[in-house]
Amino acid sequence: MLSGLALADLAWLMVAAVAIDLLVGEARRWHPLVGFGNLASALEHRLNRGRVRKVRGILGWLLAVTPLVALSAWLAGAGGFAVHVALLYFSLGLRSLRDHNLPIARALGAGDIGGARRLTARIVSRDTSGLDEPALAKASIESLLENGNDAVFGTLFWFAVAGGPGALLFRLANTLDAMWGYRNARFGDFGWMAARFDDALNLPAARLTALSYVMLAGDRRRALRCWRKQAPAWPSPNAGPVMASGAGALGVELGGSATYDGVLEQRPVLGDGRTPTADDIVRAWRLVLGTTLLWLGFGTMFAMTNYLIGEGYA
């Protein structure tokens, strides 16, 4: 491990940070990731112009990420366990996934299509103005599955590798990918570094997330089959395995057509089963929560085993 923390320390620190996130949720004011987003936006407006935009994008990425990760490493070294827990807490978004998606399920259950459309528009980039219940449920579930990896499991993975600074690095890289990593005229060159670095960081975590969804599936063979056969067709190399295995685990069909910026896109089908409903949003949340508990359970068991055979807290 790069963090310098013992396995047992890492396990209990992860449990503490996840518990704080579930109990408290995101900071409503002065959230560090919001401030980072403002910094990234200012850098992009200043640098994304003229020639050599790929080089400018690399420079922008380094200016945005490197000082903050270096500062977090120094603080973690000086402040110890509390700083690692704080860094992981601010990097997690498990409670946020629940708070943004379960209200969509409740609105759909109450027949409030308009309210469900407004709530869904807050978490996805597709046009939700004309979506019906199945399409809204599909959008919410896709967001839950994919962001379960981005906001929770990838963060936990890199915390296990490099402690609080590792978790922060992953979330900052993921945020820049969400802001800059588009394949269009504005960001195609400038966002190259953001997209490629996020893909590289996400590679191991996404496969572990997909495997976890398979392990918790009612029909594991179906979930595994969807992962193997459908993921390669999805545009994102990491979202494909996560969403395909998750859809297979839930026994619903995701993907298909969606409208972005007025343009109808036909995406590959993911999963195998029925059209999703509001109840499936709740099931998707439970899958993400169950996977979190699975990871924490495995981490704690592994750490305690190492402690008992002699590693201890050295």
UniProtKB/TrEMBL annotation:
Membrane-topology annotation of the record: Multi-pass membrane protein
Taxonomy, superkingdom: Bacteria
Similarity remark: Belongs to the CobD/CbiB family.
Cited Pfam families: CobD_Cbib (PF03186)
Functional note: Converts cobyric acid to cobinamide by the addition of aminopropanol on the F carboxylic group.
UniProt xrefs under InterPro entries: Cobalamin_biosynth_CobD/CbiB (IPR004485)
HAMAP family from the UniProt entry: CobD_CbiB (MF_00024)
The entry's keywords: Cell membrane, Cobalamin biosynthesis, Membrane, Transmembrane, Transmembrane helix
Compartment annotation: Cell membrane
Pathway: Cofactor biosynthesis; adenosylcobalamin biosynthesis
Transmembrane segments: 6-24, 59-92, 151-173, 287-309
Protein name, as recorded: Cobalamin biosynthesis protein CobD
Principal subcellular localisation of the protein: membrane
